[in-house]
Amino acid sequence: GLATLKGLAYARRLPLVGASSLAACALEGPIGPTLYAVASVKRNELYLAKFRRVSPSAPPSELGETISLTVDACLSEFQKDADACILGPAVPVILERLRAAGVAAERILLDIAVPRAANLARLLPPLGGLTYEQEKVFALEPAYLRGSAAEENPQFPPIAGESPRARIKEAEEGEKP
Q1: What percent of the chain has pLDDT over 90?
Q2: Residue 89 near residue 38 (C-beta atoms within 8 A)
Q3: CB 46 within 8 A of CB 69
Q4: Whole-angstrom distance, CA of residue 44 vs CA of residue 19
Q5: pLDDT tens-digit map of 21-60
Q6: What share of the chain is helix, strand, coil (3-state, %, to 5)?
């Protein structure tokens, strides 16, 4: 999808910027509690980003980095925060596990599973101030947190050249991975 948008932006000389789909989901969450926005990564893992909304007009504040962790680790962390709510594209996938863990129904925001286009637009800078910059269009990439299954398969060693993991955000010294 992003490759298609980049091609169109290049061909038409249009500006292109990215926005977090998990932040867009959090824009629909309630004001006050910690919002656990989750997306399925497969292999029994989730991407987790925590947010808090403080007003209806402000974008949600991100509470730390987006991380990848197992479903069990996510549920364990979520249950420690008694007032938190969970939302995002992975909620329908893990719904039965949430119910089996005894999570109260009002903390599961099942109707906020897909980010609305209007919310993605609210996270972007004002369109009037954007200009086409070829380097920025080419540099835009998804925020990868880990390699794909193919990249991590030990039966297929990497091809000589640039590491396929070059685009994955590495933890800074002192940060947890």
Answers
A1: 55
A2: yes
A3: yes
A4: 25
A5: 999 999 999 999 999 999 998 788 999 999 999 998 888 9
A6: 35, 15, 50
Task: Fill in the amino acid letter for 50.
Answer: K
* Parallel/antiparallel/unpaired status of strands 85-87 and 67-70: unpaired
Q: Is a pLDDT exceeding 50 seen at residue 177?
A: no
| β-bridge mates for residue 40, sequence order | 46
Lookup result for tokens 């329908």: 92
User: Does residue 170 carry a pLDDT above 70?
Assistant: no
Six-digit token string for 32: 């006050």
SS3 108: strand
Pairing status of strand 67-70 against strand 61-62? unpaired
60, burial (CB in 10 Å: exposed 0-12, middle 13-18, buried 19+)? buried
